[in-house]
């Protein structure tokens, strides 16, 4: 199984985003999230695709099934290769999203528990019982059974979610740092090689590439490591 690389486009302007795409050499995938999309809208998705690249539209939909289905279809019509929904939106929402993208090339990833959510917050504020790991396993399995093509999880949960889900579903993970890169604010990281071995289908990387003096070189090093 090859592990693909996705470069993060977390910036505010069109110029910065397109410069990052152009600087990222052979990388095929770019993640556009709420920040860039809210600034620039669908046009930036089309522009990145116009450069021959694929877009992971990370807008984490969580709403009633009908609304999420229409949003998912709109993302598919825009040509997004990957989109995200919240697994905690429930099975009916996930099933509706899946049905809405049927017949397109768009793949749906479910976000389980955000890594910013602690055990205490999960139990006491959100009201989910169990540890974050138990919750991730439960939500991941449920989301894939309901029709999600895969999930997003932290490097720490890669092994366990791959065990639970089996070989088919996509598992996409951020928090990846090559040995030569700074960890920045990422507390729990894996190298690209470790993430690939632990079962990641795709890794999401931002600063190690975007802050590198030669981003295309950083991309090549990471791609080599992912598939060595
Ligand atoms: O620069 P860096 O490689 O840390 O960027 C990681 C990307 O993945 C950012 O877009 C960040 O918002 C996202 N992300 C993350 N950790 C999570 C979920 C998403 O770093 N748990």
Structural descriptors:
TIM Barrel; 11 helices; globular; binds cytidine-5'-monophosphate
Walkthrough of the structure:
The chain is an alpha/beta fold. Helices cover 45% and strands 17% of the residues. It has eleven helices and eight strands. The chain has helices at residues 14-23, 34-40, 42-50, 65-78, 91-101, 119-126, 132-145, 158-165, 192-197, 207-210, 215-226; strands at 4-8, 29-33, 54-61, 82-86, 107-111, 150-152, 170-173, 202-205. Helix 4 (65-78) links the parallel strand 3 and strand 4 (82-86). It is globular. The protein starts with a strand and ends with a helix.
End-to-end Cα distance: 11 Å
How many strands, what sense, and barrel or not for the largest sheet?
8 strands, parallel, barrel
Compute the average pLDDT.
96
Count of structural domains: 1
Q: How are the strands of the biggest sheet laid out side by side? A: 1-2-3-4-5-6-7-8
**SS strand fraction:** 15-25%
- What structural category do the secondary elements indicate? alpha/beta
How many extended strands?
8
Order of helices and strands: EHEHHEHEHEHHEHEHEHH
Judging from the principal axes of the Cα atoms, what is the shape?
Answer: globular
Number of helices: 11
List the ions, cofactors and other small molecules found in this model. Answer: cytidine-5'-monophosphate
CATH class annotation: Alpha Beta
Give the helix level as a range of percent: 40-55%
């Amino acid at each position: 199984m090859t592990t693909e690389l996705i470069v993060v486009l977390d910036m505010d302007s069109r110029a910065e985003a397109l410069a990052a795409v152009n600087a990222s050499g052979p990388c095929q995938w770019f993640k556009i999230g709420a920040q860039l999309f809210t600034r620039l809208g669908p046009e930036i998705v089309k522009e990145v695709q116009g450069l021959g690249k694929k877009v992971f539209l990370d807008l984490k939909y969580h709403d009633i099934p009908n609304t999420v289905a229409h949003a998912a279809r709109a993302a598919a019509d825009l040509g997004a290769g990957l989109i995200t929904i919240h697994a905690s939106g429930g099975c009916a929402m996930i099933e509706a999203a899946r049905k809405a993208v049927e017949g397109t090339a768009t793949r749906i990833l479910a976000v389980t528990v955000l890594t910013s959510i602690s055990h205490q917050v999960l139990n006491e504020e959100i009201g989910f019982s169990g540890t974050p790991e138990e919750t991730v396993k439960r939500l991941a399995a449920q989301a894939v059974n309901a029709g999600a093509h895969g999930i997003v999880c932290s490097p720490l949960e890669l092994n366990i979610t791959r065990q639970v889900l089996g070989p088919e579903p996509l598992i996409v993970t951020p928090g990846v740092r090559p040995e030569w890169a700074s960890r920045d604010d990422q507390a729990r990281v894996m190298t690209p090689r470790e993430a690939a071995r632990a079962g990641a289908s795709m890794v999401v990387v931002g600063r190690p590439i975007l802050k590198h003096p030669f981003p295309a070189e950083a991309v090549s090093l990471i791609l080599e490591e992912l598939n060595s």
